[in-house]
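Methods — Computational structure assignment.
A single polypeptide chain was analysed. Its primary sequence is given first, followed by the predicted tertiary structure written as structure tokens.
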Amino acid sequence: RLAKLRLAKAKGLGTAEASALLCVAAVQLALGDTGQAADLAGRALAALREAGEPEGTLRHARATRLLANVRIVEERPGEGLTVCQECLTACVEAGDGAAEAVARLAVADTQLALGRPREAMKEAALAADVAKGAKDQRGAVAALQALAAANLRFGSSGGPRKAAQAAEEALALARALGDAKEESEALLKLSKVRLAKQELEAAYSQCEQAVAAAQRSGCRRTQALVQREMAALMLGARAEMETAVEVAEEAIRLSSEIGDALG
């Protein structure tokens, strides 16, 4: 990703540079470096402005969502809500469905972080519909994952059932796309749903499937995340404690390898 960034910068390709900056920013955010992630996302937006790209595009929406998630990690979600809503307005006016879906997800992320699961569910559901209409299957997967997370947080009796429906649809789409990383994350969501319903065996089974999918993806960050969740599940259920410790140690090893201090 850094090599692509240097190449785009050297050639003066503003939009390509912005895309590369966003990729590196996403990695930095995953590693917990919010300052660097915010700086890179800001540089991406500046590169887009210099390239003359109008607001309301997919790259603008992605940069806005990334900045919103930086504020969420920093526990300052309220600072990002207005920016996300302005971005959404621009995307709707531009008529770019894929960009609108991402902008709606940025709003949903922020609303959920502010403790407003009902508003988050509304935006995530709209994002899923818009992404499907734009034939953006990956966008639909992301929106369905967000919808599942919001339903889990809602606290109503129907929350786990609706979360399971969204996660199962995300899982089916991820498998159709052959995206093992998204498949792993959808299985992890389903595992959390089963755990919320006290279905421990089913939760453990889907967590194991998530680990297998994460390994197929080759993404060590996803592998570490799933291993952490599996260890937490086993420790919480007080099941196979020795194995739980081994799983946690593997998560620590993977996190250390990729420089993820928070992990």
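Note: Residues 159-177 form the longest helix (19 residues).
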